[in-house]
Structures
1.
Amino acid sequence: MASRNYGLKEIYSWKCDRLELPEEWANHLGRMPHNFRMLIAGESGHGKTEYIIKLAKMLATYLGKVHYNSTEQGKSADFQDAVIRNNMDELDAGKFMLADANQRTFAGWFNKVQKPNSGRVLLLDSMDYMHLSFIQYQQIHERFKRQKAIIINSWGDPMAGDAKRIRYTSDYKVKVKDYKAYIRSRHGGNEPFVIRDKKTKGSKERVRK
């Protein structure tokens, strides 16, 4: 197929789908496109998992099914507590799935998410545990350039190595510190997101049913 360029008239006519978000998230994320890319970074104990679960719940509500690959925690008490604490059972059935242990490698994950009904949002927690390379990230980015949103979590230095390369190609760069998510967005917003108020940080969690 012969290649062709786009004129200004065509560019102006493009229909780019954007999410209608609740105010708190719109102030943070701006006019979020359906096929965004995001890198989340932060040290352990600052609220990354809590932020990611809240973000996953919002996206499952307003965008579509979230495929959450928790390579570090997986099927664990900590992950279960985070899910219960954020009332994830309020989501419609089938809107959220946790990847199985076979997806801890890139090959297993990439094979799974290419199958039908694999999710509208791909969330990897974390690239460090999987040893995700930038070349592998390019592979999954190109495969789902228009079909899926991709979120990558990193507990390493976001300005070093493969994380730095992924960061530079991302629409959203999020830094989590002291239970606040600070963001640099190409789509507006850019207000910090309060993950958990200091007054309630040590509050009693929701009792499991």
2.
Amino acid sequence: METRVSDLRISKPGWYPDMSDEDYHADPCAEPSLNSSVLKVLLRRTPRHAWTAHPRLNPAFKPKSKDAFDVGRAVHLLLLGGEDRFCVVDADNWQTKAAKEARANARASGMIPLLAEQFEKLRAMGWEVRQQIVEDFGVELCHGKAEQTLIWRAKNGVMCRCRVDWISSDGGLVIDFKTTSADATPEAWGWTVAWNTGCHLQQAHYVDGIQTITGRTPRFLF
């Protein structure tokens, strides 16, 4: 059972393994907290931009629309054992009335609608990634925990939070999954996509949280 915290504000730093994705992104902390997404905006733009991007500070904040198909999120769920979150629609596209109704019903039930062809391609992508992790790092994703929420206070007193994609059972390895339509070779991705999207800031933020809560510095991989 997932911990629902929509009407609850967490003040105690710690590890919250069963928090839903929706509750995390809505910011469940007792006071507005800093996550890596807002941190990137704060450091790269202005405090006002960061205020606007914060779900608790900005009264007019609206989360990104779920109507757009997000390949990255879908692969993420498939990798981390979220197949039960999908509703596979047997249609060639979303243009027919039946397909549109099936998509709407799926979203109303909290499911993520996918066309059958999309689902099979994404499952194949997820399998390849799992195999590469085993080959490169000698670890299987079943030997760890997915979607882990951490809440802590930074040394300056600011309440922070992060949601770790996957962490090994011993806490020594963290993997964050990214998808890109650009060059995915380590050299090209590292010097372009990773730097431009602030992955180094995300890594520093996550490691700080894990160190604060567990006292251990994990190896962090994208």
